[in-house]
UniProtKB/TrEMBL annotation, chain B:
The lineage of its organism: Bacteria, Pseudomonadati, Pseudomonadota, Gammaproteobacteria, Pseudomonadales. This is Thiamine-binding periplasmic protein. Gene3D superfamilies: Periplasmic binding protein-like II. Its main location: periplasm. It comes from the Bacteria. One of its GO terms (biological process) is thiamine transport. Pfam families: SBP_bac_1 (PF01547). CDD domains: PBP2_TbpA. It comes from Marinobacter salinus.
Length: 552, 335
């Protein structure tokens, strides 16, 4: 391997920095808290019920999300070529970055009391008494957000089963059951605990969904309780205590999962798949899989259509040049501001992720490796609000200039996106085939050249996707930006809330749609950047060429 | 290519953020989004005040009244704020107890509120009643009292806000308390069946749910219909008048003790009680002005409900009892 000092240090320092940042956030709250009363946790009936509900809804959401994700991943794996597959996969990637308030408005438009689907079902069977609010709504929304993510990851692992195995399975004429036992289950099994842990963490820390669709204090999560203690009770002690509980629960879950050694990446890295037609992708499976995929697509797309329908008239108004006095003038500057925060945040998280990965790869210490693992999951578990408030307490005397606030917002957003970005990049970064690495070592290709000729061609696509995720996550952020008070100059989510606060309903719907379109645009843009340039003559064959799959 | 494009984009996008020049006399006001937004009263008020003060008004927009208070507490003596604007009668006393505010020294004679006001720290700038706004197309016969609402069949659904995270939510808690006293927890348990959902903030409920037609009624302000009538030109959304009376909310502004521009700040607080400030309130903040605007009050305000009975707790009582009442509410709602 090439000289490794410069590869280890930046990444290690960054990883340490992130752990330190988290420790500072929670620590500052604990430090400000007058006296910590841990007994409150088990003596308060309310807090106990919060804890039980949080775990219960998260467990249920994980179970149902995986129940949906498994058959979808299998169906997508069986059918590798059908019109619209690429678009469906794009759609499945989007769910992670979709801002909750926009998605919830769409979900209500479909499954609410007056929703499209509800009215349809009610006409069909009037006795059906569907109610979105409460556990129903929370779990439904969690499936909407997490099933596509899980399916996408599982599909990824299915697609990466060695072509040889597939060919043999195909030659033996294995039926679906045997395919499952011999190929699919062994491929998915090692990833499942990680996927489950990821979805569990996301649902466990869910906030806006629970608050809007939950129905009341009976359905409160830990994250909501933290929010309340911080924002309205000024009870830093309780907030810190609850944050520690959250850290302990999710942290031990991840510890359990990681101890078993989950190697596969938890976010699709769009690695390449062969295009072999599977034996079992014909006959009756075409019909069942087709029905399954159509249903799933509708499940994903209907809420987005609801957002489109509500927002479209307002968006036309907002974008028409004549009517700039009302809503139109606000949207464009807000978009620029949002991008000014989101693009650096995305770039910072991608860069950090790369450095951490490099450090982990170059260093051979157990400790370093652990440290890097921790940074990959820590931001998932720590509530952004706790981190934000804690940092605010620490930086307080120096803060005040708004631009510093914006830098901090970008920084926290970058840290929050890090787990996903790391997951995206880890696979392609680590899976460089050994022969290539050996050859490069023998030829003494190091430093910049090593990056340029070995990594860059393999990494540009994942890098672009990672940028899209990092930027998208930050684009929809509302929590952190609200804390550090962007001045009278709102980002799009802030603008959306402002419009809501002053009855600008159609303008708000328009901003919601605009945010959605912007996200789609960003993904498309980075997807385009990630494309390989037209093949030119390469120097030798240091890069193993794979056939490009249709969808990636 | 990727890197270069990204860098270019970064440079282009950072440009509008940079370069906000500082002026010597700058009045920093912490407020919430609906005040400072471009269609809110903020911009007009800024312009009007700047025309007479030889200064620059800068709004720092925080998410809500609770956040303004939170931010002030976090910043303590180092706060760059000169004025906080957007606290209300529910959060006012907590703000007083921080000791971070200075007396306003403003003459309050012009005030026109449903209650007596003689506070030395807080200058009211608008007021309104909490009320249930209903959709006349979904609900022809709204309940006419809190009692009727509580005793209505469970198929009447309402949306309320969480008193732990929103001021109208807290308002309803106080409203129930002022009508039912010690019986409030029991009444909450009866009301529970009618609550479709409890949202984090007023906007979450109003936009995603009420305007989607999810429930025929939502906890809001008695003045909300004014916006729909004047701007949306529709009478569809109206407030239901309740016999027991309605709970009053007064929004206030105050001077921050650590301010470097106290004199300017006090001038602003005096300005609050003039026509030039107040004329922006009715249709832009959708609340009643704090002084008598005479014929300048938009006509739609004459078509709003006028509660016979104003319900109101002294802010000190609210500060004292809030936690206990919240816990009772939590208990009633999770039972």
């Amino acid at each position: 391997m090439s000289g490794s000092g410069w590869r280890i240090w930046p990444g290690t320092l960054l990883a340490l920095g992130i752990v330190g940042l988290a420790a500072c956030g929670v620590g500052a709250l604990l430090w400000q808290a007058p006296a910590l009363d841990a007994t409150e946790l088990w003596s308060s009936r309310y807090l106990r019920s919060v804890l039980v509900f949080t775990v219960w809804q998260a467990a249920l959401s994980v179970f149902l999300s995986l129940l949906v994700a498994l058959p979808i991943a299998r169906a997508l794996d069986r059918h590798r070529r059908f019109p619209g597959r690429g678009i469906l996969l794009r759609l499945m990637e989007l769910s992670l970055v979709l801002p909750t308030i926009v998605a919830v408005s769409g979900i209500v438009g479909v499954y609410g009391r007056q929703g499209w689907l509800t009215s349809l079902l009610q006409e069909w069977s009037p006795s059906l008494n569907w109610n979105l609010y409460g556990l129903n709504g929370i779990v439904l929304a969690h499936i909407f957000f997490n099933a596509p993510l899980a399916a996408r990851i599982l599909l990824q692992t299915l697609e990466s089963t060695p072509e040889g195995q597939r060919r043999i399975a195909s030659q033996l004429g294995l039926g679906p059951l045997w395919q499952w036992r011999a190929l699919e289950w062994p491929a998915m099994r090692p990833v499942l605990p990680g996927v489950a842990a990821l979805v569990f963490t996301l649902c466990f820390t869910s906030f806006a969904i629970v608050m809007t669709l939950g129905g009341g204090p009976g359905a409160t999560t830990l994250e909501v309780a933290i929010y309340q203690s911080l924002r309205f009770e000024f009870d830093f002690g309780r907030a810190a205590l609850l944050a520690v509980v959250q850290l302990l629960i999710c942290g031990s879950l991840w510890w359990l999962v990681l101890r078993k050694g989950v190697t596969a990446s938890l976010v699709p890295d769009r690695k390449l798949s062969g295009n072999s037609i599977r034996k079992d992708s014909t006959g009756v499976h075409v019909v069942t899989d087709g029905a399954l995929l159509v249903t799933f697509t509708l499940f994903l797309i209907l809420p987005l259509l609801a957002v489109l329908f509500r927002g479209f008239p307002g968006l036309l108004d907002a974008l028409s040049p004549g009517d700039a006095s009302l809503s139109g003038s606000g949207l464009l500057p807000a978009t620029l501001r949002s991008l000014a925060i989101a693009l650096p945040a995305g770039a910072a998280s991608v860069l950090t992720a790369l450095l951490i990965l490099a450090a982990k790869k170059a260093g051979n210490f157990q400790l370093l490796s652990r440290l890097c693992e921790v940074t990959a999951y820590l931001p998932l578990i720590i509530p952004p609000l706790v981190l934000g408030t804690g940092l605010f307490l620490l930086l307080r005397p120096k803060l005040g200039v708004t631009n510093e606030g914006l830098v901090l917002v970008a920084l926290i957003n970058a840290v929050m996106a890090l787990p996903f970005v790391l997951q995206l990049l880890r696979g392609p970064f680590n899976n460089l085939d050994p022969a290539t690495v050996n050859q490069a070592d023998q030829l003494g290709i190091r430093g910049w050249y090593r990056w340029r000729w070995l990594y860059w061609p393999r990494m540009r696509r994942p890098l672009a996707l990672a940028m899209a995720y990092g930027t998208g996550l930050s684009l929809g952020d509302f929590g952190v930006i609200a804390l550090f008070g962007a001045p009278g100059e709102p980002t799009i989510p802030v603008l959306l809330y402002q419009q809501l606060g002053s009855y600008q309903m159609s303008a708000a719907a328009a901003s919601g749609l605009w945010l959605l379109l912007l996200l789609l645009g960003l993904f498309a843009f980075f997807n385009l950047l990630g494309r390989q340039p037209p093949r030119v003559k390469r120097v030798g064959h240091t890069v193993t060429e794979y056939p490009e799959p249709d969808h990636a | 290519m990727l890197i270069r494009t990204t860098l270019l984009l970064l440079a282009a996008s950072l440009w509008p953020v940079a370069g906000a020049a500082q002026t010597p006399q700058e009045l920093t006001i912490y407020t919430h989004p609906s005040f400072a937004a471009e269609w809110g009263p903020g911009p007009g008020i800024k312009q009007a005040f700047e025309a007479q003060c030889d200064c620059e008004v800068r709004y720092v927009v925080l998410e809500s009244g609770g956040d303004i208070l939170q931010r002030l507490r976090l910043e303590g003596e180092n706060s760059p704020a000169d004025i906080v604007l957007g606290l209300d009668t529910g959060t006012m006393n907590t703000a007083r107890e921080t000791g971070l505010l200075a007396p306003h020294q403003t003459d309050l004679a012009a005030l026109e509120l449903p209650i007596e006001w003689s506070d030395n720290l807080f200058v009211p700038y608008d007021w309104g009643y909490f009320a249930f706004v209903y959709d006349t197309e979904q609900l022809q016969e709204p309940p006419h009292s809190l009692d009727a609402l509580i005793n209505a069949p469970d198929d009447l659904k309402i949306i309320i806000q969480d008193p732990r995270t929103s001021t109208p939510g807290l308002g309803l808690l106080l409203w129930m308390r002022s009508v039912y006293g010690e019986e409030a927890p029991e009444k909450w348990q009866r009301l529970k069946g009618k609550i479709l959902t409890t949202t984090k903030s007023w906007s979450d409920g109003y936009f995603s749910l009420f305007m989607n037609g999810e429930a025929p009624m939502i906890l809001s302000y008695s003045t909300s219909p004014a916006y729909h009538m004047a701007i949306d030109k529709t009478d569809r959304y109206q407030a239901a008048e309740f016999e027991e009376g309605h709970y009053l909310q007064v929004e206030v502004a105050a001077l921050v003790k650590s301010s470097n521009h106290k004199q300017l700040g006090r001038r602003f607080l005096q300005f609050v009680l003039t026509d030039k400030f107040q004329q922006h309130i009715p249709l832009k903040n959708v609340m009643y002005p704090a002084i008598d605007l005479g014929p300048d009050l938009p006509d739609v305000f004459n078509r709003l409900i006028e509660p016979v009975n104003t319900l109101y707790f002294d802010p000190a009582v609210v500060a004292d009892k809030r936690k206990a009442w919240l816990n009772e509410w939590l208990d009633a709602m999770t039972r």
